[in-house]
Amino acid sequence: MGTDLANKPIGIFDSGIGGLTVVRALAKRLPRERIIYFGDTARVPYGPKSTEVVKQYAVQDAAFLMTKDVKMIVVACNTVSAVAIDEVKKRFALPVLGVIQPGASAAVASTKNRKVGVIGTVGTIASCAYSDAIHNLDSSIEVTAQACPLFVPLAEEGLANHPAAELLATEYLKPLMNHHIDTLVLGCTHYPLLRHTIEKVVGLDITLVDSAEATAADVERLLTEKGLLSPDGRSPRHEFFVSDLPHRFRELGERFFGEPLHSITKVEGFPV
């Protein structure tokens, strides 16, 4: 029975395409694992919506993944991870992991001068989720947070390395650098696409914490502890589901995932 459970796929959901950076990190770290991804492209973005609505959407997204017989659920959406992760954990009797706690833990492990910067969307920064998670691990760390709302459209439009991106990054990141941070958390799944531009602005002395990579490491740790790592040696075929606009998802998603997306299906009648 343990082997049967271990061979089940990992379920990942996000409000749209950003969570594909988590899929990319996970597929690189755990190449034997099969992944089923759901992007709620009909209702993106979640950030401006109320906590009650985000919880409702999160439960519906997770419920869809449950129909695919997944062995765990990864919440790749920072908004859901900030305000609704406990609701998902309460509703479903299988391991559930968000992106905020792994990113916070990685930042605490990284910082030497106890000064950490966090960048994210307006909603994620306003929730103080990363700051709270970092302070719960080490209350002595000084956290400086900065919303970078224009990073998302730059990533989606393929302008991550455009001079305009560097100009905006300089404007956004200057206050963090003035606080002498030595670690910077990329607190949005879109932001890894801007990593090169961000590094140009902050320099190589500041360690960038990619929440997607940190989450992939935590997934590996959790599956190892529970004896749920897939023993299957075959190259898995990942599946991608969306609630709307599969062609647009493919167009943008391949930029985020870094390779072709072969199996994209629109879920009819979602939510059930």
Structure description:
This protein is 47% helix and 16% strand. By secondary structure, it is α/β, with parallel strands linked by helices. A 6-stranded parallel β-sheet has the order 4-3-1-2-9-10, with helices on both faces. Strand 7, helix 11 and strand 8 (207-210) form a beta-alpha-beta unit. The protein starts with a helix and ends in a 6-residue tail after the last strand.
**Percent of residues in beta strands:** 15-25%
Major sheet: arrangement of strands:
4-3-1-2-9-10
How large, in whole angstroms, is the Cα Rg? 18 Å
**CATH fold call of the largest domain:** Rossmann fold
Q: How is the main sheet built?
A: 6 strands, parallel
Note the run of SSEs as H and E. Answer: HEHEHEHHEHEHHEHHEHEHEHE
Number of strands: 10
- Return residue spans where pLDDT drops below 50 for at least 5 consecutive residues: none
Q: Which class of the largest domain in CATH terms?
A: Alpha Beta
> How many structural domains does the protein architecture include?
2
Total number of helical segments? Answer: 13
Mean pLDDT level: 94
Give the helix/strand class.
alpha/beta
Query: What is the CA–CA distance across the termini?
Result: 30 Å
CATH architecture of the largest domain: 3-Layer(aba) Sandwich
Shape: globular
Throw out a few tags for this protein.
47% helix; 6-stranded parallel beta sheet; 2 domains; 272 residues; alpha/beta; Rossmann fold; 4-stranded parallel beta sheet
